[in-house]
Design brief:
This protein has about 170 residues and is an alpha/beta fold. The protein is built from 3 helices and 4 strands. Helix 1 packs parallel to helix 2.
Length: about 170
Amino acid sequence: SIWISDGFAGSAPWVGVLSPPQYTDVLLDSHLYHAFGGPTINMSAWDTVRFVCEQDGPGVAGRTDADWVVVGEWSNAVTKHNPQGGALQGGAAAWLRGMLVAQLGAWDGSFVGGPGRGAGPGKGSFFWNFRTETGEAGWDLLMLLEQAGAPPQVNTAALSEFEYSC
């Protein structure tokens, strides 16, 4: 496969560039974060989760001009409300699970109302990162799994089994 960065410009500049059916195995790589500002900068943690469901998911699903989008980087970190340090406190584990489930669904098209797994533009994603040296839950998948900040099985085919889904 060939991966092309969208240059943080979305898919519009890439319409007709190495697109199917003439080209196969070419993927447009988008990095969709909520930790660096943007429209979610002043939202509560749960409002950010709802934004993923109501804006991000349909946004990826709407990229019909380039049916080959992969979210090459994303995390559970948000501009505000990031849990700091070791153990997850209060309701942090619940909204982190909700954020993870919402993003997995948005990026692969399996969210409610979406095109269905594998059928739409969203062809998958990569969480950043498996383990961090600083132990920040929003960026550390193992920490999320260890402290119930992620579903026990990160299986996008079974997202509706969890307490939160879009």
